[in-house]
Amino acid sequence: TSKATIPFETRAQQAPCEVSKLLLKLMARKKSNLCVAVDVDQANDLIDLAKLLAPHICILKTHADLTKNFTGEISRQLHALAKQADFMVLEDRKFADIGNTVAKQYSGGCFEVSRWADLVTVHSLPGDGIVKALEEENAKIEEPRGCFLLAEMSSEGNLITTEYIKGSTQMASKFPKTVAGLVCQSLLLADQPGIVQLTPGVRRGEIKEDSLGQRWVTPEEAVIEKGGDVIVVGRGITGAKCPEKEAKLYQEELWAAYEKRIAI
Ligand code: 5IU
Questions:
Q1: What is the Cα–Cα distance from 123 to 255, expressed in whole angstroms?
Q2: What is the pTM of this model?
């Protein structure tokens, strides 16, 4: 049976990756498969939005490098809020260098990502060393940590091929403790219930693309047709008049789609 029709609670029991297990349990407990991409310019807006959106999300996704004043104090606040309000933090860093460099970018530098992000995104392009680097760094941290490997992208004209996708899924299978899931646009590794599928490019309404190659599908398409477990919504929520109300709408619609999917 495909993982798409197995409830998150059941999948949690079968997940070899600790963060994946915790995430799947969190989603079931909170009835939320919504991840909001909070791509905002100012760190204080990031914290304000995190507080507002907290009840509706399973993951808050950051891009620390596009937010001004993203200091150690901000990351500590975010981390504390995540624990208190029961969500996870995903830094969408898309690491893409050799392992030795990524280890330093992940644990050190100006953001010290491994201190505060439960999860990070990483390109499979450089090969196994990049995941090995994260695995070694994670061994130094007490809290569980994991990553999402990029298998597919939502953007028009991206260079990812079927061979590349296959290579990424094989890499994910090689590091079951560290790889919590895949960022993808279709159901992959359907026989591995612990591999959580993160699907960006989702927006309610009539707008289907932006001027820079992003493509959006509806919440229901993302969950049912593409097999997305955690759905990433950015501007659909952060650009709304009332982000909190909008987040609630997305949460309800996404959860209903998930319930429909597991009933199939
Ligand atoms: N994101 C994508 N597509 C991808 C990957 C990441 O949109 O294939 I990998 C990120 C970029 C942005 C968020 O932070 O997800 C989507 O935001 P919008 O819903 O505003 O397009």
A1: 28
A2: 0.98
This model of the complex carries an ipTM of 0.99
Q: In Å, how far are 30, 32, 60, 113 from 26, measured between CA atoms?
A: 6, 8, 13, 22
Enumerate residues 6+ apart whose C-beta is below 8 A from 245.
none
Which atom of ligand 1 lies at the shortest distance from residue 238's CA? 20
- Residue 243 Cα to ligand 1 midpoint, Å, equals 17
The β-bridge partners of 88 are 59
**Do strands 88-95 and 119-123 pair parallel, antiparallel, or not at all (unpaired)?**
parallel
Contacts of 110 (CB under 8 A, 6+ apart): none
What gap in Å lies between CA 253 and CA 111, rounded to an integer? 34
Pairing of strands 230-233, 196-199: parallel
- Is the pLDDT reported for residue 209 higher than 90? yes
Residues listed for the chain = 264
